[in-house]
Amino acid sequence: MNEIKDIIKSLNGFYKGYKNSRGLIGAVASVAWIPKKDTSFELITYRFEEKWGTMRLIDDESVKKIDRLYPTTFDNYDYENKHNRIVPNSPCPILYGIRGDDPNDLIKSSSLIKSENVDSWIIFQTNQGTDDHLQNRNIKQVKPFESVIIKGKIIDKPHTIKGGHVFFTISNEFKEKIDCAAYEPTKQFRNIIRELLIGDIVEVYGGVRKKPLTINIEKIFIKKLVDDFIKLENPICPNCKKHMKSRGKNQGYKCLKCKTKKLYADRKKKVRKINYGFYEVPVCARRHLSKPLKRF
Ligand SMILES: [Zn+2]
Question: C or N: which end of the chain has fewer Cβ atoms within 10 Å?
Answer without folding.
Answer: C
